[in-house]
Amino acid sequence: MKKKLESHQSVLQEIVNDYISGDLFDLDLSSILNEIEITGNIWVLGAGKASIEMAQQVEDFFEDEIKDGIIISPIESERLKRIQVFTGTHPYPYEDSESASYELCQVAKNIPKEDTVIFCLSGGASSLFCIPASNIELNEMRKVYKLLLNSGASIHETNTVRKHISETGGGKFGALLSNHNLTSIILSDVPGDDPEVIGSGPSVPDSSTFKDAFQVLIKYSLWDKVPHSVRIHLSKGMHGDIPENPNPENANWSNHSVKVISGASILADNIGRFLSEKGYNTSIAKSAYNSDLNKLSKEICSEAISVLSDKSDIKKPAAFIHFGESTVQVDGDGKGGRNQEFTLNAAISIEGQHPITIMSLATDGIDGPTDAAGAIVNSETTLKARKKKLSPEDYLQNNDSYHFHQEMGTILKTGLTGNNLMDVQVTLVG
User: Fold this and answer.
1) Comparing C-alpha atoms, which of 261, 186, 202, 257 is closest to residue 35?
2) Which of 211, 244, 321, 359 sits most deeply, having the most CB atoms within 10 A of its CB?
3) Contact of 129 with 99, CB cutoff 8 Å
């Protein structure tokens, strides 16, 4: 079994390397850019973890036609010549995100109506491109973000609240450019690829309401935990004292177009082809999951174990590829992220099974508030931990997956990848 597990490890590491190098996913915007009808000068705005790569392609394509632009990224870059790069923070907004957002909005307000605007949006923009609603302080907004991310709420629910305490989300940024020729190019990082949800939908009309945001906070017992100013703001919205976000019925933005790229499904298909060439019988999920982390772990581990017991239609050697965004409720005070916690959970489930290896990867390279992208575990991981007098269950209970994987050498670090395509799990069996 040792040789098989070593082979699994080598194959999964090759997938990671090929993804980082661009061999497994190479974002190509040329067909989209070729379809844009240009009027006047071109302005490039944007925000998100993949915004530098997206803006680079726009700049290379249009070159001297670009008048100016601003994007907000979690990292600094000198790659762009005509587009300014401002930095912000993720997953929680701090002063740099707020100041960069004011700069971007100020530029947008001064763009002549006869000009063309290209807006490059990717995941992470909810924190990178945000201005708190009036009477809400940035630190209060940040507290709401933290409560939501630790509550088990889905990204759709989380962003419903975010859109209603922000001056940029939920189509409010799009309203600034309502009379402009605006094309939003959106790289999806959410299940369902809904542009209203991705990055809190700054440039598209919003069908959710203040009441929807209130109900999310009630559902996860957060209403009494969020700052008083947030409760007042949402209450005013529900009573009509604050206008709802621009919605699809009243947002008459005839010159706006939206192009959504479902990157995770493309990546999953490419990983599937790679593994098929390696001799694996592959199964690729038909759609992105959006489920509880514990439930997801049980389902994926059950798939793998069914192969070993010859109860699966997929025969050994088998490979399963899943992608999506899970939810997790954080009760402990440890360190970790969705992918690290998933793999720790899975390692316990597959303990002693012959031979299974599972990788879970945050495609942006940052899993939660850590410097890890995820982890790779196998059916011997927790056995080895117990020999070292470590209790995997204790780490899991304390939501401390980061230190478990660090201790066991199973942690996966890639640095920022320049993409953000949801999480990806690859399971190898036999």
Assistant:
1) 257
2) 359
3) no
- Distance from C-alpha of 350 to C-alpha of 37, rounded to nearest angstrom: 54
Q: Residue 318's pLDDT band (boundaries 50, 70, 90)?
A: very high
Mean pLDDT of 245-271: 95
Q: Name the nearest CA neighbour of 343 among 384, 387, 307, 373.
A: 373
Q: CB of 287 within 8 A of CB of 397?
A: no
Per residue in 75-91, pLDDT (tens digit) is 999 999 999 999 999 99
User: Contact, 108 vs 82, CB < 8 A?
Assistant: no
Amino acid (one-letter) located at 292: D
SS3 at position 184: strand
Which residues have a Cβ under 8 Å from the Cβ of 383 and sit 6 or more positions away?
351, 352
Please, which pLDDT band fits residue 45 given cuts at 50, 70 and 90? very high
Length of the chain: 430
Tokens of residue 107, six digits: 């530029």
For 413, how many CA atoms within 13 A lie in the half-sphere containing its CB? 9
DSSP 381: H
- Helix (H) / strand (E) element for 142: namely helix 138-149
Phi, psi of 323 (to 5 degrees): -150, 150
Rounded alpha-carbon distances, angstroms, from residue 113 to 40, 42, 183: 9, 11, 14
> Are 27 and 185 in contact, with CB atoms under 8 Å apart?
no
pTM over 0.85: yes
The string of pLDDT tens digits covering residues 109-124 is: 999 999 999 999 999 9
Query: Quick check: 2 pLDDT over 90?
Result: no
CB 104 within 8 Å of CB 45: yes
What are the phi and psi torsion angles at 296 (to 5°)?
Answer: -60, -45
Confidence at residue 153, expressed as pLDDT on a 0 to 100 scale: 96
Provide the pLDDT for residue 393: 98
Return all residues near 43 (Cβ < 8 A) that are at least 6 apart: 66, 67, 68, 69, 107, 111, 115, 116, 117, 118
Q: For residues 130 and 93, is the Cβ–Cβ distance under 8 A? A: yes
Q: Respond yes or no on whether the N-terminal peptide bond of residue 93 is cis (omega within 30° of 0).
A: no
What is the mean pLDDT of the segment spanning 33-58?
97
Give the closest residue to 43 by CA, choosing from 25, 59, 24. 59
